[in-house]
Design goal:
By secondary structure, the protein is of the alpha/beta class. The chain is built from 15 helices and eleven strands.
Length: about 350
């Protein structure tokens, strides 16, 4: 079986949770004898050599339409359906949001990325169809949608009146990294961590305001999104001496930080999962997550939830998590249900069903 993975042009230059999901799913499918090639949406593809196409991010239909129409191949979509309506942005964008629908805002963002960041709109039909019609077209013609949770599919279905074949493929952790032993780190010992792309949706600014001048050593690690450089600078400007902002971490360096920290927090305005929360939980961190999105499907009652709009709520949740012992049941819950091996197995079962392979 040969499958083409196709995703956004900035998959590697602006890495996020979708980057990890795509790379880890591909790696584990290959262990199951599936040949997977990864393409950015703006790269040429010889569709004839593939049995199936697998797209990521249904909220970026402009990256998908061209390939659907040219390939004539069956395809599936890992939806990663993020809703940005609740995300607090700058005053000009907040004013626009009062007059323009969320789909209209997504359409404007596609145009803006093309004009400002050079992200070419590879599907000209998107311009005519608009965002909502394009997204519904992608969903309607997919052989199967692959949301990360039931909650995610239910949101997508309700928002766009979509009734499509779907199969939940959970996000996961890398067992190889989780099962290693990591050294003591005086830097990260008993710290509060926040790992994630630095942008307004991830809400690092309210986290900084909530934990400035507190007893906590706070480490925020991530790469700023291309359109979030002003936000990134504001985060640096407002941070007091107990808050450190650093670069994106990976591999043993990342897991050393996880294994030494006390609390990991993602106070985002929206999360479908929060991969770093899964990873940190598996390494023994108490977890604080947003109460917006699909987080309860993953973390149940094992973690502390916060209101991203409230600095008081963020601080209160961190205080509670920091003062509580780690619950080993959380780790076992993650190890049992959320691994990339399981994600690959669930994905492969969908491929076989789509291609009628026994």
């Amino acid at each position: 079986m040969k499958v083409a993975f196709i995703s956004r042009a900035t998959l590697y230059t602006s890495p996020g949770g979708d980057t990890c999901q795509l790379v880890e799913t591909a790696k584990n499918l290959r262990k199951n004898s599936v040949q997977v090639d990864i393409f950015l949406c703006n790269q040429p593809i010889d569709y004839s050599t593939y049995d199936l196409l697998h797209f990521f991010n249904i909220i970026r239909p402009a990256d998908i339409l061209k390939h659907i129409k040219l390939s004539h191949k069956p395809y599936v979509v890992s939806t990663i359906f993020v809703e940005y309506a609740s995300t607090k942005t700058n005053k000009k964008l907040e004013l626009l949001k009062k007059f323009i629908s969320e789909d209209g805002m997504e359409y404007i963002k596609v145009i803006a990325r093309a004009l400002m960041n050079g992200e070419k709109i590879i599907s000209p039909s998107y311009i005519c169809m608009g965002h909502k019609r394009s997204l519904k077209y992608v969903a309607k013609h997919a052989a199967c949608l692959l949301p990360n949770s039931e909650s995610e599919y239910n949101r997508l279905s309700a928002k766009y009146a979509i009734k499509a074949a779907y199969h939940v493929v959970p996000n996961g952790i890398d067992l190889e990294l989780v099962n290693r032993k990591y050294p003591y780190s005086a830097v990260y010992h008993n710290s509060v961590l926040c790992m994630g792309r630095i942008e307004s949706r991830k809400n690092q600014l309210n986290l900084i305001r909530a934990l400035n001048n507190t007893k906590y050593s706070v480490f925020i690690h991530g790469k700023a999104s291309p359109n979030a450089m002003a936000y990134f600078e504001q985060c640096k400007t407002e941070s007091t001496t107990n808050v450190k902002i650093g670069e994106w971490l990976s591999g043993d360096v990342l897991y050393t930080a996880y294994s030494n920290a006390k609390v990991h927090i993602l106070p985002s305005y929206f999360e479908t999962t929060g991969l770093s929360s899964l990873e940190a939980a598996a390494m023994g961190c108490n977890i604080v997550v947003t109460n917006k999105g699909d987080t309860r499907d993953y973390f149940k009652d094992y973690v502390w939830y916060c209101d991203p709009d409230s600095e008081e709520s963020i601080k209160k949740a961190v205080d509670a998590a920091y003062n509580a012992p780690f619950n080993e049941e959380l780790r076992q819950h993650i190890l049992k249900n959320y691994t990339w091996q399981r994600a690959a197995e669930e994905t492969l079962s969908v491929y076989k069903n789509v291609l009628n392979i026994g």
